[in-house]
Structures are given as structure tokens and as C-alpha cells.
Amino acid sequence: MPAVRGFLAMEYFLLILNRSFIVFTFPEGLYISKFSGPVSSWTPFFFVPFEKIANDPDIVPGSEDFKDVMKPSGSFFIPRAEIASVDYVPTRKWGMGPVPHSGKLYVRLTSGKSREFILLGSQDGEAVRAAVLSGMPIAGLLEPLDQIEISEHAVISEDAGLGVARHIDGPDVLDAGGIRRQ
């Protein structure tokens, strides 16, 4: 499976406003591209079209696609040397309503500033944390269903020797029967 270097995140600012990013992890630092301004809970899956961009292994610094992704205003770069620590908290973010998310990632900078990124969708927060710290690709992502191999004999039935019984000689009032060894 190709290396995945991007993840989707939301950040709150000015108390109630939000903006969303594709965050790319590379050895030199974090490339952060804004893809949406404020959104409401009325459009909880607003980020889904951008998952393909985050998962595209061909979007790398220097490529034309990468330059196009980084063009929007609000995009920025955090050099690796400025990342002091990264913490992942798997709890839900208050105020996110029905927007699916996988917890919060706190990136603390050497300047003392901190950024809280809410991981949009279903993401492996610990794997994202490790990638942000190391600059390596994100490990632990699930494979798309069309890439999973299922063997011919994935399930083997086994007789456990259990029979199901009920009372034959009368009504089963308040007695659904029972299970016993044969």
C-alpha cells in the first residue's frame, strides 16, 4: 500500500468559528492546506471529498498537484524543528455535533504556542501523532475494502454439541426454553 502522508483536521478560532485543513507530514515539517472555512453541523460530511487528496501518494512537495493544493489562502507550514511535542486525546470535541471525528491532536511549538487539530472522520490518532512527530508516513490506516483479500474458507463451522430445548408438554409461559449439552 502506498505511503499516506495526509490527514484531515479542523481547528476552532475566535471561540465559535472553525476552519478545516489537509495536513501533510514530511521530514521537513507539516504542510497545512486550508480547504474549508466555517462549516456548521448541517453538513457533517463536508470533508469527505478531500479524503482522496489526503490519501494521494503522488501529492508531494515540488509536484504541480502539491503546489495547487497549497495555493489557497490560509495554508501554512510548520517546520519540524519548531514542533516541541504532540499529544493525542481520543475524546470527542464539545460542539462538533454530528460531525464524525476521532479525537484531538495537540501540537505544541517551541515558541510556546499550541494548535488543537480535531481529527475529522475515522482516523488512527496514535498513528497520526507518530507521523507528525517523525515526519514519516501515517501507519495503521485501514485498507479500502476493494483491496482486502478474503480466502475461500474464511469461516469454518464447528458443531459445539449444544441443543435447544423447550417444554413440549405445556405452554412456554415466561420460559423461552434453554440450552443444554447433548
Describe this structure in words.
The chain has a single domain, classed as Roll (PH-domain like). The protein is 13% helix and 34% strand. The chain has helices at residues 48-54, 64-69, 125-134; strands spanning 6-13, 17-26, 29-36, 76-79, 83-89, 101-109, 114-120, 162-165, 178-181. The model is unreliable at 141-160 (pLDDT under 50).
List the helices and strands and how they pair.
Layout: E1 6-13, E2 17-26, E3 29-36, H1 48-54, H2 64-69, E4 76-79, E5 83-89, E6 101-109, E7 114-120, H3 125-134, E8 162-165, E9 178-181
Short description:
It contains 3 helices and 9 strands; from the N terminus they run βββααββββαββ.
Strand coverage percent: 25-35%
Task: Please give the number of β-strands.
Answer: 9
Structural class: mainly beta
CATH top-level class? Mainly Beta
Radius of gyration: 24 Å
Q: Classify the helix fraction into a percent range.
A: 10-25%
Descriptors:
single chain; 182 residues; mainly beta; PH-domain like; seven-stranded antiparallel sheet; two-stranded antiparallel sheet; 3 helices
